Amino acid sequence: MFTYRLGSRIPIPLRKRASRKGGASGWLETTCTYSRRLELDRFLEQRLPNGREEIPWSAMAMILILARLCEPSSELHLAEHLYEASAMADLLGVPEEKVNEDRLYRALDTLLPHKKALEKLLKERLGELFDLDYDLLLYDITSTYFEGQAEGNPQAQRGYSRDHRPDCKQVNIALVVSRCGMPLGYEVFAGNRHDATTLEEIVAHMEELYGRAGRVWIMDRGLASEKNVQFLRAGGRRYILGTAKNSLRKTSDRAPKDPVATARHEATRGFRTDTIVVETSLCPP
User: What is residue 80's predicted lDDT score, i.e. its pLDDT?
Assistant: First the structure.
């Protein structure tokens, strides 16, 4: 049975001081140091305790974290090239032959149920280490598509394709970041779900993690709808929301005394003029 202790230091031989792409092992050591300061090692060991598996899931999860931070790539690339070419095997003590694509994917499945707890831990520790503020939250949605039928994934559906692949099934990925670009939370939605229908769910999740007071939400017009504006106002939330001119005009005509500031900005880029209409509610009712 292979024995592994997350966070233990193992001397790195000179032959693996650099990867094939010239990345020094110092990147890995630095990333390991910060993962310990974030208490990720303790979190993984507590949430993914050792069982009958040959390689602990906590070790596989740490491999995924290090690879994502040092050289983002697919799990297949990590298993077939990156792990062997880097110093991770020596640093973590997990033999190269034990890291394969299937084990990496199963590690993701094992970690997923702990998503909310992990987000909470990172929020607390990152806030302490880097003095992050959460007064301004930027929310947007993207999508990723699948080649094939994706029959094992009920969220894989055909919908509006940002990749211009309407023939492929996809999922929508919603992401919230801070003003400095630090990811604060994400959710995966069905590929046929309209962007505007995700707002209430995301806001509720973020307020559970970070509270409501003092937050300003910034979103593009893909999330604009009368229902969403009513939801944001009803909760006294502050927001900056891109919206269509006709929708803004209807809202302003119906509630002329509502404290809504509108801005129209003519931005000329070469020979092209773009009109951006913004609805804001920076003074909650």
Answer: 94
